[in-house]
# Entry
Amino acid sequence: MRFTRDGLLTAVIVVLALFLGSQVVQLIPSPEEQFGRPFEHHATVGEAVEVRTGTLSVNGVQTSREVEIHGQVAATTAPWLVVDFEWLAKDRPSPYAASEVRLLTPDGRTYGGVGPVPVACFPGQPHITLGCQALIELPADALEGAVLRFPAALNSELDDVVIVDLGIDAARATELAQPAERIQLTGPVEQP
# Structure
């Protein structure tokens, strides 16, 4: 069997096309991978994001070694990260569980959950914006480059999720790691 120049060129093109096609197929997520991931909405501080259950925006973060709410004081040697956010329920009364908020670090650590101080964002009525707070205890080295993860509803890891980039660089992380004052938590407050 003899290969002609055109035949050899055709064989090389076919082999190259098969190789490139297999590489492209590996980059495309499988249906199982797609259905096993939440739909992420990325935002920055001050940016409002609409999800299935409402609209959420993070107004800012602050740190303290002591927080107080309803006469209860919680102290820590690591900073408390107090997240100020607004929640606007969409179509029906909808609570926002502040205990569902998680802080994710660039190296893969996760902080948050139910803590010793009860904070909640009570059921908000549609068209009424609530000012709420989330409280996360974390080590100071978790602040730089961290993002916050807000699910759209309780226990909804595979639902709409808002990922908020806090924009904390090394200088801001150093500043936040040295909190000075006790923070008085307010609980949910209707916003004008």
About this structure: The longest helix spans residues 5-27. The chain has a mean pLDDT of 86. Helices lie at 5-27, 31-35, 170-176.
